[in-house]
Amino acid sequence: MERVHVKEGPGGLTFGVPDGAVKLVQVRGGDAIALAHLCLHRSDLTAAEDCLDAINRAADEITRTALWQAAIVQFLKCFGRSAARSRLDADTIYASHPPEALQNFRFFKNHRDKNVAHDENPFSQCIVVAALNDGKKPKKVEELYGMDCRFWILDEANSRKLKFLIETAAQWVESQYNACADKVSESLEEHTYEELAALPEPQMTIPTAEDAGKRR
After folding, report:
1. Mean pLDDT throughout 116-137?
2. pTM
3. Which of 90, 47, 38 is nearest to 70 (CA)?
4. What was the pLDDT predicted at 3?
5. Residue 114, exposed/middle/buried by CB under 10 A (0-12, 13-18, 19+)?
6. For residues 7, 13, 15 and 16, what is the CA-based torsion angle, rounded to 10 degrees?
């Protein structure tokens, strides 16, 4: 069956009916919510891997750096606290892998928290220096300089480590998604066709600027 196509129209989003179906209905309940959360995780992990793969095709250092940071942020978003969706647990996902996996995960998380998203660790530094003359002028200081330095971690070794973390998390999410989807499908099949057809049509609102600070 084809994927569901979504289009934006004057009245909001409209959903196309895939081949082999005659109607779309929205499924609610705890298992459906869990499935939706896994779907969002899958989307973020796919985006993270796409950004990582695109780095080698980037033509300049600015683009490479932006893609690298985006990959880190998209990946770790799935493991962060959220009031709108469940979080992935690194201890569970990487439990069957060597200890280096969790060590690498914590390294990237610390780097995201204290360098990419904020500025706390030594990977960004700045010192102020004064250029002095020979002391024979009225002013002894010729110039003040702010010397900033950023230590980038983008290299082949770290790229491989991040790719492994992303792929492993994506595989875990996919297995959980399939199991949850089977559970939701089995639950729906217990209802009559008339009951299923009476379920509400899919609805998804288009956010506005006022929604930026709201929880969905």
Report:
1. 95
2. 0.88
3. 47
4. 64
5. middle
6. -30
For every residue of 116-182, DSSP letters joined together read: ISS--STTEEEEEEEEE--S-SS-SEEEEEEEEEE----SHHHHHHHHHHHHHHHHHHHHHHHHHHH
How many Å is the Cα radius of gyration of the chain?
Answer: 25
Structure tokens given for 215: 């929880």
For the stretch 3-45, pLDDT in tens is 677 777 766 777 778 777 889 999 999 999 999 999 999 999 9
Interhelix angle 99-111/156-189, nearest 10 degrees: 100
Could you tell me how far CA 148 lies from the centroid of its own chain?
29
d(CA 52, CA 72): 9
What's the chain's average pLDDT? Answer: 93
- C-alpha 28/C-alpha 16 separation (Å) is 20
What angle is formed at CA 86 by the lines to CA 109 and CA 26, rounded to 5 degrees?
A: 140
**Domain chopping of the chain, boundaries:** 25-119+154-200
pLDDT of residue 11: 66
